[in-house]
Amino acid sequence: MLGAALTATPLLQEPVAQPELTTEMLVVFGVVGLALVLFLTERLPIDVTAILLIVVLVVLEPWTGIDPGTGISGFANEATITVLAMLILSGGVSRTGIVQELGRRMAAFAGTSLRKQLFATVAATSPVSGFLNNTPVVALLVPVVTDVANRGNTSPSKLLIPLSYASQVGGMLTLIGTSTNILASDISARLGAEYDELHRFSMFEFTQLGIIVVVVGALYLIFVSHYLIPERVPPRADYLEEYDVGSYVADVAIVPGSPLVGATVGDASDTLGPDIDIVQVVRDRGRAVAPRQELPLDEGDVLVVRTNREAITALENAPGVEPVGHLGSSADLSATDTEGVLTELVVSLDSRLVGDRLDPEAFREEFNAAVLGLRSHGELVGGRIVGTRLDVGDTLLVQAPPETLDRLASGDDVIVAREPPRPEYRASKAPIAIAIMIGVVAVAALEIYPILISALAGVVAMVVTGVLEPKELYDAVEWDIIFLLAGVIPLGIALEQTGAAAYLAWLVVSTAGVLPTIVVLWLFYIVTGLITELISNNASVVLLIPVAAAAAAGIGSNPFAFVLAVTFAASTAFLGPIGYQTNLFVYGPGGYRFTDYVRVGAPLQLILSTVTVLGIAFFWGI
């Protein structure tokens, strides 16, 4: 079967007539173009873009064929609800600390051996990502893996990209490994009315190929990747040096007779100006980290302030205060301090901070953490950080009390890049959470009930047994993913109903019909991977699965093989930080540049494209 696919050159038995390019198709292509522009430029948040797509499709109903009911059908779609339920189940498991404990145990033997550290990272990530959504898995393991690197005197840069990539290949082990798999299954089922070979995926539909992909990917990540990844962050990195904090932090003392004596931190902030943020107040031998606005000040207090170079110079003439030195003179910004821990916070996918302009004073009041530095899109922001617009993956250097980091680690706004000193997990609920997940998978795998029903039943069981509190259900959901699914599903329907997908398939067939089928299959894999780097993985499967199925039918091939190629390619995006959420989560903590992903990911993408396409041809035929 595989040999025939490699040697045959299947031309069309009967030339397929060129479909007529209609006004309806052109309108839908215009909507697709709008979606691509908005996804690429990120002028609007991803969930707002999704809602806009629904509105545009319904307003243009005479051409798109999308009425209001169909426009909002994505919210009630089986894939959307299943993804929502799986996110909640993943959240429940994360509350027990299972994933973190697994990571720590797998890393316990690693020591200073880089290869063992990579093995521990991959072994702790890939299998888990087959059953839990891989986005929260990476969010949970970033601090664990960073600590493994620091304990082993290894640059975290060497381990964090492998962490992200291992989670992506692990997501291809089962139907529920990624939201993309679930969405692709739903699209395949919908197209089954037109193509007999297509159907809804079973729980372990492609596990045999997923295992091969995981093994090949793991071997590459363990034995090859570290040669290609630069040490962007030095081992046991000094945060103060890495963020050049010494150039922007100074100490000023409140002098006798100062108007600030008896005033508050808020009054001092107003007096010193908007460019100056008070990160500590030192009094005698005690100090307040991330002090509240209402904290009263006294003569002799030393204010540790973070600002830009120009404002530091201006402090010499500020009323009521006197510079007493730069960093280290009267306050210790130590990462190991018991009063204020120095660490990085990564802006998460579902964070309230995304799109906001950084206001250190407001951040201190809301999160009880003092901002000392910022990496935006991987680049260090020197000088003035006030007013910088925050995005997913941006990294804030903060100092905060240990209890604050515990609270932040359990929330959804940021990922704490080092494990909190006193993490609080519901460890006693871990066996219950594992049992619930096994039950969800077993019921779906045995086809007693669909995955949608078993997942929703698992959500109820998580609440009833106390694994999750009712109010935590909403916090566990990445709502931008849910809105994205709801917005792109009707776009996919419009592509199919207007014939736009068939027209694109004809273009593919007319240009690639002289190539061997397996080469056409490989090209779909490569194109899907490249498009996923530009837009989201979920959007790419919505746009390309209908085209791939129609193209396969046009050359007399197996549509299911082409659907699987698109599905695998969309879930393995290795060429940049944008295409996949997990790549963004490690961007800041690893200190990476955009080119680092290409350097490591391009060879892996080529290797897995070959392995996946050959595997599809072997297991399912083309």
Q: What does the secondary structure layout of this molecule look like, with pairings?
A:
Elements: H1 2-7, H2 23-41, H3 46-59, H4 61-64, H5 68-71, H6 78-95, H7 98-107, H8 114-129, H9 134-151, H10 157-170, H11 179-191, H12 207-223, H13 225-228, H14 239-242, E1 249-254, H15 265-272, E2 277-283, E3 286-289, E4 302-306, H16 309-314, E5 321-326, E6 341-347, H17 360-367, E7 370-376, E8 379-380, E9 395-400, H18 402-409, E10 414-416, H19 430-445, H20 451-464, H21 472-476, H22 479-497, H23 500-512, H24 517-534, H25 537-554, H26 559-570, H27 581-585, H28 594-619
Antiparallel strand pairs: 1-4, 1-5, 2-3, 2-4, 6-9, 6-10, 7-8, 7-9
Helix pairs in contact: 2-3, 3-22, 6-11, 6-20, 6-22, 7-8, 7-9, 8-9, 8-10, 8-12, 9-10, 10-12, 11-25, 11-26, 12-28, 19-20, 22-25, 23-25, 24-25, 24-26, 24-28, 25-26, 26-28
Report on the architecture of this protein.
The protein is an alpha+beta fold. It has helices spanning 2-7, 23-41, 46-59, 61-64, 68-71, 78-95, 98-107, 114-129, 134-151, 157-170, 179-191, 207-223, 225-228, 239-242, 265-272, 309-314, 360-367, 402-409, 430-445, 451-464, 472-476, 479-497, 500-512, 517-534, 537-554, 559-570, 581-585, 594-619; strands spanning 249-254, 277-283, 286-289, 302-306, 321-326, 341-347, 370-376, 379-380, 395-400, 414-416. It holds the Pfam family CitMHS.
